[in-house]
């Protein structure tokens, strides 16, 4: 979530300095790559960033970090509280160096709780927040989302929380500490619709929103493929029932209002599935477009980058990295009329910017050389960095 949030901030124009340990961020070694430390995941997560490799366990390394903090608007970390304490990454320590700094901490559990230092990754957060049980409620078994949903939702939460704190700082000059615990974030995310009847005290119904927990809520098979049909309004459903030759269903008390349809979604989706198979995907899309019923063809993941809609929007573009060659870059999806996000920097090699960033922070060439020689700092292409990175 930290690298994802920082990548978005970089897209929006922030000068992001990624402080890495000498071995590099874990994501550098996950998945296909052409060179060590430059995986496909790292190419996109580290876009618009500069990489500084510093050993924060060394006292001199923590002094270097303090120099960087002096010129920073914000510090973002997803280390656990005990690690932050050991490395001097507390709000009190950072504010003593830079009173206006915003510190954003993000980890699995809320800082100050009795479980604040427990290790956790995305699957743990999904389970602890009740998300895995939603699969079971939908008629299956306990399961995980097939993407790192907690990391990405929490990364987005980090972005808007950090920007809100910076807006406050712009108006008042006051820095502050923002804590974004993953489990808390995902509980809030899950309960938007699934608190349901337990919104009331005493409860007026159970947990869970029936419409999205129905076992047969899935794309529908057509005569020649797949389609997602989603009639929603009263008029949508009347048009749909008329089109399939079942106008009497419009007067069925189970389906007369949006609330009744949601309560009887399983039966309603059975009707949709049976009707979908009688026509081709193209026929369904033509009909739905004509009467304004939401519908779309089902995209295979490997077809998404080359889809005309995606290409025309520049959502996935081809870039040329100075060392990694041609690669696909995922663009920020937000559109700004005056300050559009863009790829300003390709993902850096580990420690690629160590010398430049430390010089900007006021370090002399001799001082930087000493830090590199002592193994406190590492620079890409220099022997100590290559040895540390394996």
UniProtKB/TrEMBL annotation:
Q: GO MF annotations for this entry?
A: transferase activity
Q: Which Gene3D superfamilies match?
A: Crotonobetainyl-coa:carnitine coa-transferase, domain 1, formyl-coa transferase, domain 3
Q: Which UniProt keywords apply?
A: Transferase
Pfam families per the record? CoA_transf_3
Q: What is this protein called?
A: CoA transferase
